[in-house]
Write a structure and sequence with these properties.
alpha+beta, 6-stranded antiparallel β-sheet, 3-stranded antiparallel β-sheet
Length: 207
Amino acid sequence: VFAAPGDPEALARWTARAAAIGAEARPCDPRERVPGLTAEVRESLFLADDWRLDAEDTLTAMLRAFETAGGRRLEGRVAALDGVSVALADGARVEAGAVVLAGGHTVLSPVPLTPVHGQLVRFDEAGPRDGAVLRTPAGYLAPSRRGVLFGATMRSGATEPDAAVEADQRAAARALIPALERERAVTRSGVRAATPDGLPAVGRLSP
């Protein structure tokens, strides 16, 4: 985390937030943590307990573990539920000891779900592959073996990318790592479901 110009109290707030949950925020040289970072970034903190999971790698591992345990993945729109019997829109019916609905905001559910659109940019095969995530006032810069990422948005009710957001994200990433100026960036976006209170909805839909 680095202090933006004009906000001298930013690092003090991060230190207090970390201490409140039993974590430590200590001063660091940001260029030792984020390769290629501009010299404009100076006062910074390193939070060793602030982790990030790579979404693609994590989902791949979870699906592999699910199938190894005997699970079966099906794709289709749910038309009706009856206990653990699921009727799909194409007429197929699934019977199982347990069914996990993972259809996002479009899934048939007794809990009202709202779409939340997330958007980021990835610089193909460019930027740091590992190291720390850099949190900035404009977003986060995250290393990735597929190319550095800069994101991300959370727009409630939206389902489509925003071109202005994309331009801002590209500019912010390139300002932090000047070498990205000559690299091609692609937009990644997706929609996830949000419950009214923002907490997970987990449990059986019917006896």
